[in-house]
Amino acid sequence: MAAAAPRRQPTLDQVAERAGVSRSAASRVINKAPHVSRATRDAVERAIKEMGYLPDRTARALATRQTGIVALAVSHDDPELFADPFFAQVIVGVSAALEETDLHLLLCLASSGRGRSRLTNLLQTRGVDGVMLMALRGDDPLTHIVRQAGVPAVYGGRPLHFEPQWYVDSDNAGGARLATEHLIGLGRTRVVTITGQICTEVGEARYRGYREAMIMAGLTPHGTAEGDFTEAGGAAAMRTLLDRHPDLDAVFAASDNMAAGALRVLAEAGRSVPADVAVVGFDDLQIAERTEPPLTTVHQSIQDLGKEMTRMLLGLIAGQERSSIILPTRLVQRGSA
Amino acid sequence: MAAAAPRRQPTLDQVAERAGVSRSAASRVINKAPHVSRATRDAVERAIKEMGYLPDRTARALATRQTGIVALAVSHDDPELFADPFFAQVIVGVSAALEETDLHLLLCLASSGRGRSRLTNLLQTRGVDGVMLMALRGDDPLTHIVRQAGVPAVYGGRPLHFEPQWYVDSDNAGGARLATEHLIGLGRTRVVTITGQICTEVGEARYRGYREAMIMAGLTPHGTAEGDFTEAGGAAAMRTLLDRHPDLDAVFAASDNMAAGALRVLAEAGRSVPADVAVVGFDDLQIAERTEPPLTTVHQSIQDLGKEMTRMLLGLIAGQERSSIILPTRLVQRGSA
DNA sequence: TACGTGACTGGAAGCGCTTCCAGTTTCCGT
DNA sequence: ACGGAAACTGGAAGCGCTTCCAGTCACGTA
Question: What is the mean pLDDT of residues B24-34?
């Protein structure tokens, strides 16, 4: 190793000695605590500057019982799931919110059993001040561990069949309603939907929104096929729907990726979009601007999701009461509907 | 807060007391140190189990002067850069390598001045055991800070005009050579290139590889246009090239995104790919499989990059000597060449 | 002048763990 | 039976910081 000079960084004791005051006085200056005379403060500050002193994080953490670190945990069976740009956006949001604080972000990809036990250990050994949990299933043992470890925790999205005490989620049902209502407003009546996995909260909520909108408009849900949020899955579902409901005149796809697959299949089938069939997606990913025609879709701000999760967690760590948040969605009109 | 029972976790002292041994003995058992009798070990292990003891990370960190945390720092001016799927892949690789250890990953997006100073502080206050640096410019002050803080550091990719002591990088020049040679092997002689920003190491290296291959084959570089690694940039560059070198019969684009833009422009211009113009990209991103025609491209394993960086860093932390690594690339043939 | 008040100070006790060291025990070979 | 090495043990000194507390001091008021 090119380990730097073996001389260690100066300690608080040395600073205090140089400033000619006690260690406690020096500590007070550093922490901007009250009851410090002008003379003491000046002396300590000068010593700090001269020695290039910086307090040791670890020692401070031990004394204050605060690590200055929060974790973002992505718990899921598929290790590749993290490659979804969704998480990058969340992280950008989280980082932005953290930027204004002195906290740092620990990222935990807990897909394997080993990964999960590492995370568990991290929480139980008081390695972080709080944790944000994402992408976990309702029966994920993590929910139990987190609760038991007594670590402040906020959820990003809700697991199915489990309402966490504190969470931030996009208004999935509302967005789906928005999309469906838009299609209905266009005069379409034979609106079908391509859902995500119904065994996920997101998949279920977006399907629910579609149903609600249809029923509110006095229509009956015209046709449903379950996809898996991917482009290929969307294409397959679209083929199924065309087959079963050749008269369909609109489709609400629960993700942009699925909508892209659907568009491809519709083109192959000779249906023109939006003339014959109107299509709306969900997510407003980059892909939505590049489909042919460009995709009308429901926008959700994933960075905001990250930001709000972080703010909520900071509040909880500070001991404040908070309430869960549902983030709004909005329709972005492009060419497909 | 729903803070769990205020009763704190048991400490090592309590475990020792319960086991009827000294704290040092208990510590030895936990750390699997030698010189522990069977009886002592059993007693301590039983006490640990009964009390549900887990050592406190922070206290241990203070005593051992090891935090058990490594940082991945992405230092760049554009906060959105992190949204590039590239980083997600790196993180997946890093996580996989870390999974086998007891270390955790701290993620630092240091784009703003504030972010950079936070990172600086983290390193100087001994908040992490080592750091992996990515996407920084040659003159990034971070390189200096890292050096001065004496924190083990490995670079992912090389900044321009600066060869870090330890780094992992893809063989960009070699890959570009591979791509260009492939085009030449196809009988193309009027091969042009769309480069990335030449003011980046990657951009420069891939351009260099192209030139080398051309010259080795006795050809003169036929035309060059600088893009910015994006699809739009690639499209613009392609238009320029078509305009200046209407006779071109092949193009090597320094990224898949740019290649996708180029394909679009070529189609608009009525050039058929690969018949009239053969195209090769670089990166082998998902988009390469979806272009029309599917893109022949140079594959690099970004997860491996993350893994190797991590292994190297772990080695450095453990005090081993290491040497920098250049990861191989390979050509993936699809329809465009 | 005496006294209560509040600002300021440093000593000392932690935070929970590792590790050095000196002392004790055990177990050989002889 | 005995000397010595090797295995084991617990006391104590840290790691570097925060914070409680008892004490000092200067001040304004009665």
Answer: 93
Proximity of residue A11 CB to strand D below 7 A? yes
Nucleotide nearest to A126 (CA to C1'): C16
- The helix or strand, by DSSP H or E, that contains position A170, with its residue range, turns out to be strand A167-170
Cβ-based contacts of B100 with chain A (< 8 Å) = 114
The one-letter code for the residue type at A3 is: A
The reported pLDDT for the residue numbered B253 is 98
Checking if the pLDDT of A310 tops 60, the result is: yes
CA at A42, C1' at D21: how many angstroms apart?
A: 25
Do A5 and B125 make contact, defined as CB atoms within 8 angstroms? no
Q: Is the pLDDT of residue B201 over 50?
A: yes
Q: Which residue of A has its CA nearest to B145?
A: A4
A322 CB contacts (<8 Å, ≥6 apart)? A166, A312, A315, A316
Whether CATH 3.10.25.10 fits B69-168+304-325 = no
- Among residues of chain B, what percentage have pLDDT more than 90? 82
Residues of B in contact with A103 (CB under 8 A): none
Sign of the alpha-carbon dihedral angle for A201, A138, B97, B166 = positive
Quickly state the pLDDT bin for B7 (edges 50, 70, 90).
Answer: low
| Fold assignment, B172-299 | Rossmann fold (3.40.50)
Domain ranges of chain B: 12-55, 69-168+304-325, 172-299
Q: pLDDT tens for residues A219-254?
A: 999 999 999 999 999 999 999 999 999 999 999 999
pLDDT at B5: 39
Judged by CB atoms closer than 8 Å, whether chains meet at A5 and B69 is answered as no
Whole-number mean pLDDT of chain A? Answer: 93
Residue with tokens 């609600």: A212
- How long, in residues, is chain B? 337
Supply the DSSP string of A110-123, one letter for each residue. E-SHHHHHHHHHHH
> Measured between CB atoms, which of B1, B150, B319 is closest to A152?
B1
- The superfamily CATH assigns to domain B12-55 is lambda repressor-like DNA-binding domains (1.10.260.40)
Determine the average pLDDT of the residues in A268-287: 95
Q: How far apart are CA A287 and CA A318, in angstroms?
A: 40
Q: Which of B159, B157, B125 is nearest to B142 (CA)?
A: B159
Contacts of A55 in chain B (CB under 8 A): 125
Min Cα–Cα distance to chain B from A186, Å: 31
Q: Which CATH superfamily is domain A69-170+304-327 in?
A: Response regulator (3.40.50.2300)
As a whole number of angstroms, the distance between CA B133 and CA B158 comes to 10
**pLDDT above 80: residue A29:** yes
Nucleotides of D under 7 A from a protein CB: 7-12, 14-20
Establish whether domains B12-55 and B69-168+304-325 are of one fold.
Answer: no
SS3 category, A241: helix
Q: Are A126 and B57 in contact (CB under 8 A)?
A: yes
The DSSP bridge pattern shows strands A325-327 and A167-170 to be parallel
Q: Is the pLDDT of residue A3 over 50?
A: no
Task: Report how far residue A62's alpha carbon sits from residue A70's, in angstroms, rounded to the nearest whole number.
Answer: 16
Of A82, A89, A152, the CB nearest to B83: A89
Residue B61: name the closest of A169, A61, A44, A184 by CA. A61
**What residues have CB less than 8 Å from B145, skipping those under 6 apart?**
B120, B123, B124
Confidence category of residue B112, pLDDT binned at 50, 70, 90:
confident
